Structure formats: structure tokens, C-alpha cells
């Protein structure tokens, strides 16, 4: 029976590219694996798949009775709804440990790096498996995305070295140019419904018993949101009520100015000032230097709720 390799709900490029790359590796070492996904493909991920000639993994929402290898998360809120009825055989992740538990031993590759695909590159090296050109392209794009072309504070020397090695395999001459092409795709928001934008890169977190949703939109110029910001604010308020969440936060991240404006819908906006030391005005706050949800947004917010 083949294992299913799957990332988190509302998958980003790391989840999709990681599922494909890890499933290929597993098959090469004699462990049957199938890449799958838990949601729609984002425009950036579609750009990457098209660039290197891949179809999106199968959409599969139920995993009861199956063996599952988890990529890019360990949070139950981000996992398949029936994950408790599946057997988790492994985890590859670069986030804080979440609340997924298992009844049997499992393989764990968890490292404090900028991207799960950096860890998967380490796995290829460990098993001495050659990385095909097209898969190397997927992996390097995922790392460029997660590290914001090396600007994110989550970026490590390991991420940079992996991109250099993968670029050589994939015959990519200018990785920063490729990264900017990806972020230009991310910045094309005109005509996209507010809900689609809010949910493009959205994750739910359990923070001391409170459900908090955090979305992020990374662009090369925040002016693309000038005409739709009020629509985004109205939608996060609706999303908060629909999901019974304590808070929904939307980060509008300018990768060139290296900072984020946070739009806030919360039962208690004081939690934002406690977490970041800045008082919201009109349910908005500018967070200078903040690019990473994983490293700069979630940890202080988690501490504030605790």
C-alpha cells in the first residue's frame, strides 16, 4: 500500500513542491508514495508547476485508514480532518512543533531552516539519490518563496546553499530573477475576489484554546491593495465570525520595503499591542521588518495568548 505525501490545508508552494519532491524520493528508495494536496493551487504555485512541467498533485481530502507522510506542518488545524484515523509515518517540517500525535514511531526530519524543501534536499543527500532537473526546479522555487528570495529572517545558510546546488541541477542561471518573476505573479491581485485573496496563504492556529487565523499576501508594492483594502477588511471580519475564531489577521507584506501592514479583526485588539508593542489604529498596524509569519508573527502572538 502506497503512503500519501501531503502538506497543509490551503497549500503553499512549499507544501505542493515538497509533496512532489518527497514522493519521488520515497519511490526511488523503494517506498511507494503518492503526492497529494488538501486544497486549490495558488497562482504562484501554478506558475512554478508550469515552469517545470508538472501537473498538480491529486486533490485528496480523506486519509482514514491510510499511511500519511506530513509535509510543512505539525498542526492538527492544518492537517486532514480525519488525520486521527490515519497512520502518520513521517514528518518533514521547519515550523514549531504543533499538536499532531501518533500511536506508532515515525520518521521525523525537522530543522530550523527557511523551507521544508531545504530539508528534503538534505534527505536526497542522505540517501544519495540524484535529483532530476525538473524536481530541482520545483524545490529551489519553493525555497525562494518561503525565504522571500533570502530576505526573510528565517533564511539560513543551508537554504542558500541548497538553492545554489539546485539551481545548478535545474540549469537556472539567475535565481533572484526567477524569484522576482514568482513574486510578480503573487502581486497580480486585480480582479481577484477578496475571499480568494484572504485564503490564498491562510493558516489557523490554536493559541491557548483560542482559534486564530493568519493570512499573508506577499507583493512587491503594497499600492496594489489601495482599492481593495476595505474589501479585505470586511472579508476577514466575516471569516472570523464564520469560523468562530477569536481573531483573523491578514499580513500585507511588501518584500521590497521589508515590512508588513497587519489588518485586524479580533475580539481583543489589545492582544496585538501585547504581542508586538504597537497599538493598532483603525484595526491596522505597520510592523517594520516583519516578513515571516512563522518566526516574527506567530511566536510573539502565541506568547501573548499564553
Automatic annotation (TrEMBL):
Range of residues in the leader sequence: none
Species of origin: Pseudoalteromonas aurantia 208
Protein's UniProt name: inorganic diphosphatase
Cofactors that this protein relies on: Mn(2+)
Catalysed transformations (reactions): diphosphate + H2O = 2 phosphate + H(+)
Keywords noted in UniProt: Hydrolase, Manganese, Metal-binding
PANTHER family for the chain: BNIP - RELATED, MANGANESE-DEPENDENT INORGANIC PYROPHOSPHATASE-RELATED
NCBIfam families per record: PRK05427.1
Amino acid at each position: 500500500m502506497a503512503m500519501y505525501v501531503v502538506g497543509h490545508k490551503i497549500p503553499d508552494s512549499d507544501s505542493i513542491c515538497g509533496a512532489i519532491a518527497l514522493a519521488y524520493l520515497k519511490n526511488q528508495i523503494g517506498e511507494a508514495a503518492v503526492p497529494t494536496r488538501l486544497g486549490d493551487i495558488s497562482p504562484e504555485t501554478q506558475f512554478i508547476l508550469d515552469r517545470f512541467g508538472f501537473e498538480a498533485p491529486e486533490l485528496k481530502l480523506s486519509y482514514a485508514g491510510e499511511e500519511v507522510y506530513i509535509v510543512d506542518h505539525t498542526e492538527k488545524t492544518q492537517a486532514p480532518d480525519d488525520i486521527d484515523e490515519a497512520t502518520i509515518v513521517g514528518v518533514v517540517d521547519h515550523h514549531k512543533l504543533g499538536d499532531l500525535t501518533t500511536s506508532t514511531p515515525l520518521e521525523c526530519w525537522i530543522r530550523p531552516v527557511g523551507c521544508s524543501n531545504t530539508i528534503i534536499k538534505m534527505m536526497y543527500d542522505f540517501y544519495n539519490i540524484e535529483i532530476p532537473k525538473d524536481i530541482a526546479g520545483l524545490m529551489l522555487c519553493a525555497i525562494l518563496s518561503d525565504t522571500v528570495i533570502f530576505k526573510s529572517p528565517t533564511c539560513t545558510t543551508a537554504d542558500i546553499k541548497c538553492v545554489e546546488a539546485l539551481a545548478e541541477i535545474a540549469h537556472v542561471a539567475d535565481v533572484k530573477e526567477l524569484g522576482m518573476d514568482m513574486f510578480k505573479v503573487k502581486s497580480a491581485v486585480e480582479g481577484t475576489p477578496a475571499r480568494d485573496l484572504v485564503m490564498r496563504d491562510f493558516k489557523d492556529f490554536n493559541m491557548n484554546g483560542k482559534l486564530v487565523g493568519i493570512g499573508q499576501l506577499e507583493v512587491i508594492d503594497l499600492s496594489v491593495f489601495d482599492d481593495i483594502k476595505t474589501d479585505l477588511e470586511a472579508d476577514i471580519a466575516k471569516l472570523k465570525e464564520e469560523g468562530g475564531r477569536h481573531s483573523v489577521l491578514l499580513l500585507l507584506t511588501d518584500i521590497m520595503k521589508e515590512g508588513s501592514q497587519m489588518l485586524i479583526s479580533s475580539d481583543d485588539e489589545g492582544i496585538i499591542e501585547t504581542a508586538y508593542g504597537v497599538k493598532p489604529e483603525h484595526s491596522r498596524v505597520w510592523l517594520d521588518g516583519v516578513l515571516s509569519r512563522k518566526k516574527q508573527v506567530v511566536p510573539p502572538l502565541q506568547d501573548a495568548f499564553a
